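Field guide to reading this record: the first block holds the primary sequence, the second block holds the structure written as discrete tokens, and the final block holds curator observations. Each block starts with its own label. This record concerns Serine/threonine-protein phosphatase 4 regulatory subunit 4, catalogued under organism Chelydra serpentina.

BLOCK 1 — SEQUENCE
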Amino acid sequence: NCPPPPSAALGGQNNLFGYIEDLQELTIIERPVRRSLKTPEEIERLTVDEELNDIERAVYLLSSGQDIQGTSVVANLPVLMQQNPAETLRRVLPKIREVLHVAGVEMQLTAAVAFLTILQEESVSIHTYSHSFLHIILQNLEHRDAGVSNAWLETLLAVIEVLPKETIRHEILNPLVSKAQLSQTLQSRLVSCKILGKLANKFETHIIKREILPLVKSLCQDVEYEVRSCMCRQLEHIAQGIGTELTKNVVLPELVELARDEGSSVRLAAFETLVNLLEMFDADDRSQTVLPLVKSFCEKSFKVDESILVSLSFHLGKLCNGLYGIFTPEQHLRFLEFYKKLCTLGLQQENGHNDNQIQLQTLEQEKKYILVRKNCAYNFPAMIVFVDPKNFHLELYSTFFCLCHDPEVPVRYTMAIGLYEVAKLLDSGVYVIHKELVTLLQDDSLEVLDALISHLPEILELMSTGGENSGSESKLLTVPDLIPALTTAEQRAATSLKWRTHEKLLQKYACLPHIISSDQIYYRFLHRMLTIIMTNNVLPVQKAAARTLCVYLRYNRKQQQRHEVIQKLIEQLGQGKSYWNRLRFLDTCEFIMELFSKSFFCKYFFLPVLELTHDPVANVRMKLCYLLPKVKSTLKVPTDKHLLQQLELCIRKLLCQEKDKDVLTIVKRTVLELDRMEISVDAFQKRFFENDLLDQEKEREEQLLLEMEQLEKEKQQNEGRSTSMSDKIFEKKRKFCKEGKKSKLVRSQSFSTQALHPKYGNIDKCSNKSSATGYTSSIPGVGKGSMLPFSDDSFRTRSTNISGNAVFSSSAPIATSSRNTANSVDQKNNGTKDSHSRKMSL
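BLOCK 2 — STRUCTURE
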């Protein structure tokens, strides 16, 4: 064997030295761990006799245990009070009182929480609680640690709510006189301020005036600014307890004095308290006292006292509307200009302190200015009320534009949240803000988009109707950028990782049939929904897209387009190569059964669903078995007797041929459920009355779509003849819609418990088994009047090349049952007869 080269030997030696160094480092790391391990003596001290009961163990651990064991006993005190309150009060609580004198911060905080829990759980009576626990709480109020003191104070304030007046007076109010003196510690005086604010609502006015108000005045003039600020914030609670008269004579002078305090935190507290108490002051006090103070705050906020700027911007809306009645026109304009200045604060190069010199803004200033603009966005609806919505375009539109285009996301986010309130206030003038709606829909931040789509259906509905109190036609026809903005928003949500925003957006887009035309939905949105179902990887997003697609299908007005969509659903989903698509087809069928009539589902989807009993994937067959009871509920006898036979045949095949044991178990369970089901008959039955009535309403709505399409065809054919004929058809359709309203009113009066769709014609002549699509009124995001805005829009819909081929062909490649073959022919004949009768009447 050849010896290794010197370099290799050296390398091996270096590796060995490195290995030894690593071991030395590990030993250094191990040393603290070894020191932290308990010695046998320590383990012996921590060991407790297992034969002791809970009370004895608690007493033992509090007497001779370590701090961590004592803390665990204190934390378990509410449980001991529930199990054995008498023994706990007699033996454990005295030990806890002794231990708390020398306990650390952790045990003190645990005890404060435990005492509060016992009060909330009402383990003992209030009398017993005040006798046993109140003294311990009062003893620990002035703990040297501020966190511990505040924890005990929170417990005491909760106890004050339930204590009787006499106990409060003797145990809390009387000692408070000495605790609030200047000779006491700062922490003691701060605690006294908060207790006084709580006591103001517990006593009569004369007691408050005699015993509490002198202490309040004294603390308002304390030498420490923390005490003055704390007492100032409690003046709001005290004013509510003493009434309007004493507030005017006692509280208001103190607030005026505190508003001129040398401490900025005191001035801020005085300003916020003044705004919150605005309703308690009469017109004279507001004009002579409050308004000059507010003007002073506004003037100083830019020049001297920037600390109040954030609070001023937050309360400005409430302040302006609270003082609205006493403003002169000049003052009104001055406050409006002040608000506009705040809305652009930090966006200009000049800071306002020096007009000639450009000052560099620090990071802290920038954060403050962003918060100011965010507060202005929050107050924007209040400022619309302040200027009157009629003056919005003249007075506030430029400010609204700036806030919607602000460079910071929090500002735009706040505007997106409040856009619905703005739209409601503008009412008939809501179309003015449509450009900003488009801008926010195309915002770079998904947070802004998520905030906007929360109320997107309501905003679009207000814009489409021109406001709640307006009868004008849709203004959205003049917004060419709306549809591209909606599609861009969906694509941005789809490409992001925030699938919940995407799901929410798809759910809200179900309102679009109420907003835009059927053709626009078909070409811009409907196929996109189908693509999402087939390509997206997130199940909630796919289900949201499936439901929205069903809504679009229900509102589609052209039979050929409906025909194409149904065919794609069956071929690309129901007969798709991916089992995932076939599962989504079953989800879509579930939405179809929910939104459409029974006859529609049986005609187009019943047999394609049953074909999935032969699916090679067990999960698809299993999901189908869960769906079979709903499928059976769509059948009616004797009309659907042959479909019922098909269903029974498929179930027999499953029972006989199914090899997957999990699927077979579900099949057997489903068979038992199907046997218990009762099938509804063609005639109305009492036990199915409401469901049959709702289903009949869906069929009528589906038939209404057919008749509306026929009217559109007649209009298009007669457009070349004369405009008078077109006007007559339009009047005929309006009359048809009015009759629908009357019949709907009668139905709603007869069946007040059933939610039926408004604005539909009285089409009793129509066949119950319609071949058209249908839609129920339970679609999310669509209001009650969501159908017959379409009756007027239908004459504005552009004619397309495929409108002439609107009737389904009997040889169409859609898997349909033979259920309504004769009925559909009858419907076509009836439809032509009806159209001839209309022509004769015209």
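BLOCK 3 — OBSERVATIONS
The mean pLDDT is 79.
The two ends are 116 Å apart (CA to CA).
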